[in-house]
Design a protein that fits this description.
CATH architecture of chain A: Beta Barrel
Low-confidence stretches of chain B: 1-28
Low-confidence stretches of chain A: 1-23
CATH class of the domain at 341-627 in chain B: Mainly Beta
Structural class of chain B: mainly beta
CATH topology of the domain at 341-627 in chain B: Neuraminidase
Mean pLDDT of chain A: 80
Strand order of the largest sheet of chain A: 1-2-3-5-4
Largest interface: A-B, 53 and 86 residues
Helix content of chain A: 10-25%
Mean pLDDT of chain B: 89
Radius of gyration of chain A: 16 Å
Number of helices of chain B: 2
Distance between the termini of chain A: 22 Å
CATH class of chain A: Mainly Beta
Shape of chain A: globular
CATH architecture of the domain at 341-627 in chain B: 6 Propeller
Oligomer: heterodimer
Number of strands of chain A: 6
Number of helices of chain A: 3
């Protein structure tokens, strides 16, 4: 069960790996048990540290546009995963589907799990965001 | 607390990821073949270093704390768990090449290993220590497969296919398998609270919520008669162990919701003895305790009695220890590299000037502006707490600046050397910067509180006392001026880019900030300097960005007169580290000369070099926490 020693032992590593690639303790903000699936248009994105942000416009049952903000890992996360900024640049204004863990505050804010780009490419933010 | 389980099993992987980030990426002008070759070489080197730095050996201890055997060979693994008959140990082995991890079972007598799971896709891994079925024929575990954490079980001899037992919408951790074989126990926990479930292995396999709390919790471990379960919670402000009645039909209201606290000096991993008359608890002080209990009627528990303490050199926690069901043997994954470190002061030629204080679990030393004192983060073996300590270099006398159950880290000196600042993170996840007198006297003053759940690494306090800076992938500046409440202080994302920006250090004249970044074409961390305008701190002002280093692993330091800088450079042939100096000027504009080596330290240096700031203001003293080989027996 929990023990602070483990944290201290791992701290050095975490302060490298964690601080570079993560900002929030994600579970504080997002509910991993409350997932949402979105189909919409990638409106814009911000490819910067400490985490990328993807803005997706969807339509609700009455046809109104709802704007979702999806938080992803840091750009570094994608370096060796065959995913680049160019993949998202080429997807702006085009249809995408996404799955995210919803923010605990109930807002249209989510922690990205996966996104399928118009090219059919599946971008996964797991295991970091899973 | 959830993360602590995962930490222990993914440390090596995390270390690899960190090293890969520090490793060069193929540059422009290379062919695709050359790039692939360079990438493979960098990864191989990083894997070799991860193996070298993180190898463990599986030691078996008796009830007196004496090592009575080892199981298998040294290597990377985590989460050892005894089989019910104590003839085998299940554990998790990472495959750093494939970026996966799998379950293995080692035979205690021969050390022979049997692979139980077969992760095939990159980044598939086992989430936490597994649990054995009561008869030892099966193992249940949580694995990340296809982006979801699922519960599986499989024959412990590795034969047959794994059976998907349960899919949970979020992250979960297995904790136990009831002795009657009917239920698995698992939990979910995060900063929003925790829930413990019993998962029936028959019927619809719908989890039964047996305890829900707004606090973080870990458990359950069921009593052998399945009438009670023990779990850990931080509801008292620190981790303690509690027992509740288990009745699946009653769910969370079993036993009227009554709970018994069984630990009195901090909780930790707990195991039931087979007969159900003893509990064994590992406290935060590395002390194994025995508690006599009675589960036949209303639960009763005696006082915890220490059996033995492990030495400070043997780190032990929830992810690397297991007790046998007969209560006779502990198996612990022990690092093969030294863990204790000695604060050591060197001169510019690398001659040792002082060994300060006693060896300990010490990291992040920072020397005071007058060069007379040190501050560092220390893990206290008596409490298991991470606290901030200072030392007088001449006398070796030490002072506890903090003595809190909340972990503190990233200490730095104030410009006048009268205070130290540090980051403290309570269970709420609201990391804050505090400052306090260097000798620990008086109260700590909270200076700034960051975004909930976000971590920060504090790296500098400006010479004029008006700014602090920390990093979180982004270089953040915190203005301290004015009569502003801590919660109202606004952090400035001073340098937020696609690339990583770390370890900001203000120049003594406040006209520049030095930092580490991987912004170059080859993706390596290097030391850069760019202008800073204290009158307009919202963003970097116009001006050239100057790359100072050609290869570095951290330790960004300005000399007090701003005319020399220091950083660490890895030796290209081995893990040794060169301490580098470079002449610089900040007037009329920043310029840097050619870096030159001062001296070399034998590596690898333990700790996180990108956080180091180990040079005195006069550039004459260099302090590092140096590994000390030590074999500390249990007591």
């Amino acid at each position: 069960m929990s023990h602070r020693i483990t944290a201290s032992i791992a701290l050095g590593v975490l302060l490298i790996a964690g601080s570079l690639s993560a900002h929030h303790n994600m579970s504080a903000i997002f509910d991993f048990n409350n997932r949402v699936k979105l189909t919409g248009t990638l409106n814009k994105f911000d490819w910067r540290n400490p985490h990328i942000e993807l803005i997706v416009d969807t339509k609700n049952g009455t046809g109104e546009v709802e704007t979702w903000s999806l938080e992803g890992p840091a750009p570094f996360f994608f370096r060796d995963r065959d995913v680049s900024k160019a993949d998202f640049e080429g997807s702006v204004g085009k249809p995408v589907t996404a799955e995210a863990s919803r923010a605990r505050d109930g807002s249209r804010w989510g922690l990205l799990r996966t996104m399928t780009l118009p090219s059919g490419k599946l971008v996964s933010a797991c295991p970091q965001n899973c | 607390m959830k993360n602590l389980y995962r930490i222990s099993t993914v440390t090596a992987s995390a270390a690899l990821a960190a090293m890969l980030m520090l490793a060069p990426l193929p540059g422009l002008g290379q062919s695709e073949q050359e790039k692939a070759k360079a990438r493979a070489a960098a990864k191989s080197k990083a894997i070799a270093q991860a193996l070298e730095n993180n190898s463990l050996i599986l030691n078996v201890y008796d009830r007196q704390g004496k090592v009575v055997g080892t199981v298998g060979e040294r290597g990377l693994f985590g989460g050892p768990v005894w089989s019910p008959d104590r003839t085998r140990v299940a554990l998790i082995k990472p495959d750093l090449e494939k970026e996966t991890s799998d379950l293995w079972v080692l035979d205690v007598a021969t050390g022979a290993g049997t692979r139980v799971t077969n992760s095939t896709q990159a980044r598939e891994f086992i989430n936490a220590p597994p649990v054995w079925s009561p008869d030892g024929r099966q193992i249940a575990y949580v694995a990340l497969r296809g982006g979801s954490f699922n519960v599986y079980r499989k024959a412990s001899n590795g034969e047959g296919a794994e059976e998907l037992v349960y899919q949970h919408p979020g992250i979960l951790n297995l904790a136990d398998w009831t002795q009657d074989g009917r239920y698995l126990g698992f939990f979910t926990t995060d900063l929003g609270g925790g829930t413990i479930y019993a998962l029936p292995l028959t019927g619809d396999r719908k989890p039964i919520e047996i305890h829900k709390s707004k606090f973080q919790i870990i458990g359950p471990r069921f009593s052998p008669d399945s009438r009670y379960y023990v779990y850990a919670s931080n509801e008292t402000g620190r981790n303690e162990d509690f027992v509740r009645a288990f009745d699946p039909a009653a769910g969370a209201s079993a036993g009227g919701g009554k709970q018994w606290q069984i630990s009195d000096e901090g909780g930790g991993p707990v195991w039931w003895r087979r007969e159900g008359k003893q509990l064994y608890l590992l406290g935060p002080d590395r002390g194994f305790r025995e508690i006599t209990v009675n589960t036949t009627g209303t639960f009763e528990a005696g006082k915890p009695r220490v059996i033995f303490n492990l030495g400070e050199a043997i780190p032990v926690g929830p992810g690397n220890v297991s007790m046998s069901l007969d209560g006779e043997r502990f198996v612990i994954a022990v690092p093969t590299k030294p863990r204790l470190r000695q604060l050591t002061v060197f001169d510019r030629e690398g001659k040792v000037l002082n060994k300060v204080g006693e060896p300990g679990l010490l990291v992040q030393p920072h020397i005071s502006p007058d060069g007379k004192r040190l501050v560092a983060m220390r893990n206290d073996p008596k409490t298991g707490q991470n606290d901030i300590w200072t030392w007088d270099i001449a006398s070796g006398k030490s002072y506890a600046v903090t003595a809190s159950i909340d972990p503190e880290n990233a200490p730095i000196w104030s410009p006048d050397g009268k205070q130290v600042a540090y980051v403290s993170t309570p269970p709420s996840g609201l990391a804050s910067i505090y400052r306090k007198a260097w000798d620990g006297s008086g109260n700590a003053e909270r200076v700034f509180t960051y975004t909930p759940g976000a971590g920060m690494v504090l790296t500098d306090w400006s010479q004029d006392g008006k700014f602090m800076t920390f990093f979180t992938g982004v270089l953040v500046v915190v203005p301290l001026g004015g009569d502003v409440q801590p919660n109202d202080r606004k952090a400035i994302d001073w340098l937020r880019e696609e690339y990583n920006v770390l370890h900001g250090r203000f120049s003594p004249d406040m006209r520049y900030i030095a930092y580490l970044s991987d912004q170059g074409e080859n993706g390596k961390l290097e030391l850069y300097v760019r202008p800073f305008d204290a009158a307009k701190p919202n963003a970097p002002p116009p001006g050239p960005v100057v790359q100072v280093s050609k290869d570095t692993v951290g330790n960004v330091v300005w000399r007090g007169d701003g005319k020399e800088m220091y950083f660490l450079q890895p030796d290209p042939q081995n893990t040794d580290v060169h301490i580098m100096a470079v002449d610089v000027s900040t007037t009329p504009a920043f310029t840097a000369g050619t870096p030159r080596p001062l001296f070399k330290l034998k590596g690898p240096l333990t700790g996180n070099s990108v956080q180091w700031k180990s040079v005195s203001a006069d550039g004459q003293r260099f302090v590092f926490a140096i590994d000390v080989p030590q074999d500390v027996p249990a007591q």
